[in-house]
Amino acid sequence: TLVYARPDAPNLGFAPEITDDGRYLLLHVWDGTDTRNRIYYRPLDSDDEFIRLIDVMEAKYHFLGNDGPLFYFETDLDAENGRIIAIPTDQPDRANWREIIPQSEDVIESSRMVNNRFVVMRLHHASHRLHLYNLDGAAQGEIALPALGSVMALTGKREHSQMFLQFMSFLYPPTIFRYDFAAGQLTPLYQPQVDFNPDEYETTQVFYPSKDGTRIPMFLTGKKGLARDGNNPTLLYGYGGFNINLPPLFAPTRLAWLEMGGIYAQANLRGGTEYGETWHQAGMLGNKQNVFDDFIAAAEWLIANGYTRAERLAIEGRSNGGLLVAACLTQRPDLFGAVHCGVPVIDMLRYHKFSAGRYWTPEYGNAEEDPEHFRFLLAYSPLHNVRPGMTYPATIITTADTDDRVVPMHAKKFTAALQTNDSGQNPILLRVETKAGHGLGKPTGKLIAEASDVYSFLWTMLKRT
Length: 465
Fold this sequence. Notes:
By secondary structure, this protein is an alpha+beta fold. Helices cover 19% and strands 34% of the residues. It folds into two domains: 12-190, Prolyl oligopeptidase, N-terminal domain (Methylamine Dehydrogenase, Chain H); 198-462, 3-Layer(aba) Sandwich (Rossmann fold), CATH 3.40.50.
């Protein structure tokens, strides 16, 4: 049975949800990668047309729950860091909307209703904090987490007396916790056994100035007491786009790098949502060069502060992060000793013509339709900024033959351009995985094989000098 369709607007997507009381069917209406959405609803026992409660793409609205006709939403309407509001659907005029929890200096990452209260997860300098509020918005305190890290999953329903969450950090493997609301206690339930001693390592957070003076946060993880003599093999990772933030995450491949004596650095660049929509917009469209400047400034800071030197510094990024490292290696080939460019977006003048690329134009722009977009895309497009006779750093470019998100032509064209124009002093390699896509759902065996190839290449290139 067809519930709803919009043949007049084929780009729209619909995410249905039934309220916990079983009274209403909601539709979250979205368009491409735009975080703004609309909200439609109707009584569950009705076949009438959906009521368009919010029918303009002006802000993000995430449904949290309801008390009869009173709907609660997390939104960034007039609050780029997020707030929680109540909308009486029986009196939907905006004059009747009520703010429950105002925005704060920290961005709301997610929220839900558990134990008849609001559980709000905020980003504080790119790591997570959990706050509790009554339904009237009164603050009920903060749940202390084990370390500087990330809450990657949180489950519980409004009537439950406890909730469950997954916590992790660079040195803290993904652990399932139970929080008892009556006791106010967070108790670990399950943690995987990892053959690694985290007590020998530490994570610190630093802040450094970008080219325009903007203060950028960066996490550094390495052995305790490491010498800042400029000789540490360092892996710098970034993304910078599409409202995606980079909190502290656990990855076994990073442990291998650390055990070998390396440093892992993760920069929280503009283009993400670490500090709200303004932070995102400062790294999109005509401001995209800010992202590359932030990443280059991170590399320069690591070198200036004795953590590493250019010959011992590797950079890594995937997808939009692949675009990041590709742009940086073409702009500053002298700054890096090795590069992993994973499933990258490379041809910025034509990316929108292939597979899902048409959905990214709000983030990158469209060189065909707007002369100004053509100008700023051409200025940084990695494919169009490879220069003859340059010596580019040792580079491994990875893709998959059936990647239908970022088609492999990007990686192949970039490899060809680098190999044709490079002076030939450093290897430029292309690794194509077969029977695989953009990354999600890749079998463990393929993940291990790719990680082995990539990190052995990076480590070997950095240890040449």
